[in-house]
Amino acid sequence: MASLPTPHLAFDEYIALEQRTGSKFEYCNGDIRAMAEASPAHSLMEANLIAALAPQLAGSGCRVYAASLRILIEASGLYTYPDISIVCGPLLLGSGMSATNPKAVIEVLSPSTRRYDDAATGCLMASGNPPVSGAKTPTSNSPTAIQTSHNRNQMRTLSLFLLAATLLFPQEQKKKKQRPSPPVETSVAINGKNITIKYSSPSMKGRKIFGGLEPFGKVWRAGANEATALHTDADIVIGDLNVPAGDYTLFVQLISADAWTLIVSKETGQWGLAHKPENDLGRTKMKIAKVAPVESYTMTLSAKELKLEWEETSASVPLKLK
């Protein structure tokens, strides 16, 4: 385990420290703590939990990640590497390539990591977002705990506790809904196959949007905040672009007032501004029409098309199953 440096580092210093040392640290509002080294029994429990969770989540759109994934719990300002993270939908990455949308995080409690786990809990408690903890002796009044007994030379008890149920949801969803550009979802089912787009919806608020806030000649994130995410259960055709089943990010090339191009990127989870042309699946032209003023940006999926509307512009592209 790496030795602890001076506490109260800026976030950029924390990231630089990890890159320089090759070690993992937990970061809580300026304070850092080196990750604890887990015992073999701890590692086995973690592996068994991942093996048990993965098939249960199959087909749900949720995935299980191991301790190599850094996550941010925004409600407490905690950057950490939980034993297990569950993410539903596209993996969204924020500052320092930290996952910002875990559905749940799970920690295996054991003697080998007790001091580290206590510090993480302290950070959450200080923020007013205590974890849901597994008790050694569950009662009708305590949260469910998963325990396992080992031989006398190993740990006596391993408890499972969920950190995210109360501190990520509903708090994080409530925070997102209170944003100036709140999250919105549009979806359509075609022959039993679901197609979904998740985006953030900014408003005009008296501003000139296209050719002003969003200048022509630039790539637009097709929304706000996190990247606009497309998920399709089936192979589809958008315009003249073949899109295999999977997860993608959508951007729009604003060429001029009358010429827009929809960009489908294979990269997912990035912040909305991070467009990398080398990751594009492809591009397709959009049909532009003038409409009555639309205050809040709207994306609409139907069985025949994808439509974007904002200000006095409507941009659409045909959509069908392949």
Brief description of this entry?
The protein is 16% helix and 38% strand. The protein has 322 residues and is α+β, with helices and mostly antiparallel strands. Strands 9, 10, 11, 12, 15, 16 and 17 form a 7-stranded antiparallel β-sheet that branches.
Characterise this structure.
The chain has 322 residues and is of the alpha+beta class. Helices cover 16% and strands 38% of the residues. The strands form four sheets. Strands 9, 10, 11, 12, 15, 16 and 17 form a seven-stranded antiparallel beta sheet that branches. The chain has a four-stranded antiparallel beta sheet with strand order 2-1-5-4, sandwiched between helices. A hairpin with a 2-residue loop joins strand 9 and strand 10. The longest helix has 18 residues. It is globular and about 65 Å long. The N terminus is likely disordered.
Give the number of DSSP strands: 19
Q: Ends: how far apart?
A: 52 Å
Biggest sheet details: 7 strands, antiparallel
- The helix/strand class is alpha+beta
Helix content: 10-25%
- Strand content is 35-45%
Uncertain runs are: 1-6, 125-170
Q: What value does the average pLDDT take? A: 78
H and E string: HEEHEEEEEHEHHEEEEEEEEEEE
Shape: globular
Radius of gyration: 23 Å
Q: How many separate helices?
A: 5
